[in-house]
Amino acid sequence: MRNFDQSFPGRDESIPPDGICPAFRIRSLMLLLALTISPLLSGILVANAELRPYEADEHTLQLWHLNEGAPPFKNAVKDGISLRSMHNGAVAGEQGFPGLGRAVSFNHHTGGIPGTPSLAGGIVTLASGLANGIEDNAPKGFRFQGEDGAFTYEAMLKFDKLPLEAPSIALDIVTMDGEANERVFSFRVEREGFLSFSPLQDSGAVGGAIASIPTDGPNAINKKDWFHVAVSYDGRAGVPGALQLYWTRLDRDRESANRIGVGTLSKNLGPKTGDFAIGNEARNHLPTNAEAEPFPGLIDEIRISSVARHPNDFLFVAPRARATNYASERPAPGSDAGSFHLRLTGIGVDGEPVSEIPPAGTPLSLRPGLHRLDFEIGAGSNFFERPVQLRCQLAGFNEHWQESVLGMSLTFEFLDAESKPISQAQFNMTGSSPGWGTGFTDSTFTQRREVLYSPEKVRYLRVTLSSGAPDTSGCLGIDDLNLIRPDQPGVSLWKNGNFEKGSSGIFPMRAPEGWVRGGAEPAIALTARREESSILSLIDGDQSMGGKWTCVQDLDAGKAGGRTLIVTWREAYNVITGNQQRATFLNVPPGQYTFRAIGMTEDKNPESSDLSAKIVVRPHLWQMGWFWPAVTGCVISLIAVAVVRERNRRNRRRLRELAFQTALERDRTRIARDMHDDLGTRITVLNVAASLASGAMDHDPDKARKQLDKMSVSARELVVAMDELVWAVDPSRDNLDELALRLTRHAEEFFEESDIRCRFDIPSSLPTRPISSDFRHNVSMAVREAMHNILKHAGPCEVTLTVRFEGETLSIDVRDNGRGFAGDSTGEGHGLGNFKGRLADIGGTCEITSSSGGGTHVSFRCPVPKDSKLYLL
What we know:
This protein is α+β, with helices and mostly antiparallel strands. The strands form seven sheets. The chain has a 15-stranded antiparallel beta sheet that branches.
């Protein structure tokens, strides 16, 4: 290309050498960019195009787009009734979600006190005005459910204020409420952060659904995004899971709605109508009870359907991807909806859940002691969950089959001094209490009275308010808890029964005095205020976890033990049972058990199922079968050992006595031998010298004088020998220092008048280790013998006496640099036999090394026992 351009006449010099025009470059890049982002833009446009207002289909009963700038708000269903009026400052024509037109703002009020029933908040009604009576009711024939009772209520929401910031009691979305006998349903957001649907007292049904609104993740509640909310019911009365709640954020394409909870209705909603309203309740128009539950934000696109809409049949799902065939998904009455089965969903031990259920066939091992066991049983099929009857048994503990329980509960446990349960009474709450409205503030708390029996050994009473199985939801509140004796009705045995101490109306998480939160989700346990009174409550919207309140108080056995007691409280509740039931067993002792559950569906063609789980409560050590035989054997063995040890001790003492007597006899024999051999000889010499001196005194004075001199020398030697004998038997000399001192004196005496020079290598002090007299005598005599040999054979020389005590051994070395002798000349004449004999008596050794002209080295090694009495053995 370059060669072509260079040879082409008239080539534009502004074209770069590569031959590509800058303008062409720009056009090419723009085309490439357009090709790249076109699919993305197309997808966005398609997505936005797909998110458009609903069109009424065969299942749509009511549909309001709320696009008008003022009432009436037209109903998109043919011949449908328009929303005729708007009150209390509500504003129409607000900007809705892109593609959905306009919305209505309800975050306004025109009177009353925020947070009280007197608040007059924004509202849109079906009637043309508000009235304290039936004048503002929905007209007869207004359809809000299908022929089989199924329905779906849905709306689009955007918050200006989050639930806890709102000035209203609750945040209504769609309601059909009224003043007298016209209260039907309420679909709303609770200030505590729940989405709820409640059938009201005139609907003919109890139950409902309540679920926690997400606070994190892709559907977390906030004030900048729009949310789609819906409640659907498939018309199967009494079936757990038939009522479903959805909460979905509209921030991106969705293939399905986000389900956050399920519930149940005991019956289908009745045909009675009430005050139908959007964004608030229209119960009353009195100053003290106005429209007190305005939604704090925008509402748009209200649709009521005659079916339980499928999760992917909502406006944020592309039309071509929506599921609209409902007939094929609804099981015919009495048909088989799937394989029914039971499953163990949880095990609680002493009120605490087990972190992991062992696989089938593997027993759950528990620590020793008495335990309370709670078993959570779920029942269902492949898709549709169905009501069942359940019975349970803990084989090995109680062979009786008992029915499982549903709902929330108030439990009284009597404990002994070790806090172990010895008796229990449990009272369950399901459905709605008489006088239940939409919450604690507008509900009647009814008095309840029950009888308890307190065992004689009672020490404590533990009261537990529990939300039940994890999939149970709803609200339960109690007040004025009281425990009395029938003969003393004015004396309460329970403290702080009104929950006033420690609680706070401002801080619902503050616990009343003595009460402790527990369970997998302690935040379910709250305190509430009603008419200036504190309420202990459970508000459970989390269908995967439960919560509880627990309190333990002292119980005077003298006043309560062995007696019948009466417990009273006031209660209000709307408890929505799930598909899980609970079986409880108290005071299960150590042993091996099998939990069994059997169930049957309540269908025209019933199915049955069963499950089992093994439980092992480990026994205490003393409860094991081998323990007492082992203890008996150990006791017998210890007695035998003690007898043998005592016998051995006596034998050793006898042996010591015999050894002592033997040693004493040996010392006596040695002393006698020494006296006979040494002292006797010297005395004999004295006698002979005296006789000779006496005979020569007259005729040979010189000879007599020599004999007298000899007598004098012998007398001195006799004194030395006596001193040696006394030293050998003196017990005060039985230590190493005295032995070393004695050896030094021997050396000085031996070499004092000779040509031999003596050196000493002895520590200034030796350990104060006791030694026996026999040890001292043998060592002393062996060293004397070695010195005698040096004096006799070595000639003029230098002698070194070394004494050391190291490693429990006494080392004595006698070295000289005298004449010495040849190695093969060592014999008994040089004292080797005497050395070995004396050292062997005390467990020592002796070595002699010498060379002719090289001197002699005599080495003694004597082990010194720590106990000098060992020599006696």
